[in-house]
Design brief:
This protein is mainly α and 339 residues long. Helices cover 77% and strands 0% of the residues. The protein contains 14 helices and no strands. The protein is globular, with a radius of gyration of 20 Å.
Length: 339
């Protein structure tokens, strides 16, 4: 009972931190907006208050900044969940969609829809990204011989997949699009929240929300995978069905995020390890912690992307890489020492 109360209090405090960093993000820009004004604009819109505030502030909050901050939060949560799932299924501390080429495959699928017009309007951007993500996963699985190839072989297969799909994407962008379109697509591929609005928030919030619920339903299954496929099967887990279902879920989360904001790396690598250090390895606690931590990390990264260089917004992927690459190096070093 006491542990449940502590967990509930921790979740409540974590969600309050998410709201706080979102409010801070909304206030940062060419037009600074106080946190109090942000909260009043939100409560006014929800009908909880009727305080008069500047219409300019209200328009900036609702038409641009709030949707951006919320999309960043849900994208961070989705990428962190994807990383936690892949690390459990592959029993590999370095696994995440970006490192294993899943994000690169999703980018190729999305670019194929945008520039080449594949599907003649029938296939949506998210569907194209999902097809690319799943193709990249199949490529990595075949090249690494599934889970029998070992952690090193899986990572090498992921590197090969990233190079292959990035090369295909670059070829399509440079040969099939005009110069301005190529520049726009390349900047988008590095990760950008600049063009997101409420329709993108509706899509990513639904997909990530459903993804989190499904992940929690598979929490015990993910715990069982930590001991290997044979141990999971002995515990009554249908290994093949669970693996396919969870990998499809990972591909869907990654593809949806890539189709909205481009390819953003290392969030799925960093946050599961941070969450594991705080709440332990049990996935019923780990998955919500990953989602909350990923949301906070991504919003802070978006703030940094707008503040590091005056009068310029950096691609969000640049900021996450500045944090993720050193973290990746530390994990790789510790993993090699452990083996």
């Amino acid at each position: 009972m006491r542990n449940g109360l502590i967990s509930g209090a921790a979740i409540a405090v974590s969600l309050m931190v998410v709201l706080l960093v979102v409010a801070i993000s909304v206030g940062i820009g060419d037009l600074p907006i106080p946190i109090r004004t942000t909260f009043l604009a939100i409560t006014n819109k929800l009908g909880w208050t009727s305080v008069t505030i500047s219409r300019i502030h209200e328009a900036v909050i609702w038409d641009y900044r709030l949707s951006r901050a919320l999309v960043a939060a849900f994208c961070g949560a989705g990428l962190a969940l994807s990383g936690a799932i892949m690390q459990s299924l592959l029993r590999n501390p370095l696994a995440e969609p970006y490192v294993l080429g899943i994000s690169a495959g999703a980018s190729t699928g999305a670019v194929g829809i945008v520039i080449l017009g594949l599907g003649s309007g029938v296939v949506s951007l998210s569907a194209g990204a999902f097809a690319g993500a799943f193709a990249a996963f199949l490529f990595v699985a075949l090249l690494s011989n599934g889970t029998r190839g070992g952690a090193d072989r899986t990572i090498l297969a992921g590197v090969a997949a990233s190079q292959l799909f990035n090369a295909v994407t670059s070829y399509v962008v440079t040969t099939a699009g005009n110069a301005q379109q190529a520049r726009d697509v390349i900047f988008w591929l590095l990760g950008s929240f600049g063009g997101v609005r409420w329709p993108e928030f509706a899509l990513v919030s639904v997909v990530v929300g459903i993804g989190l619920v499904l992940c929690l339903c598979y929490a015990r299954v993910l715990d069982a995978f930590a001991f290997g496929d044979e141990a999971a099967a002995a515990l009554g887990v249908n290994v093949a069905r669970a693996r396919i279902g969870l990998f499809c879920l990972t591909a869907l989360l990654t593809a949806t995020i890539v189709s909205i904001v481009g390819s953003i790396g290392f969030v799925g690598l960093v946050m599961p390890h941070v969450a594991r250090f705080i709440v332990g390895p049990l996935h019923f606690r780990l998955l919500p912690a990953c989602a909350i931590g990923g949301a906070i990390f991504m919003v802070i990264a978006d703030i940094a992307a707008r503040m590091l260089v005056p009068q310029q917004v950096l691609p969000i992927g640049v900021v996450t890489a500045l944090v993720g690459v050193p973290f990746f190096s530390v994990i790789l070093y510790r993993f090699q020492r452990a083996t």
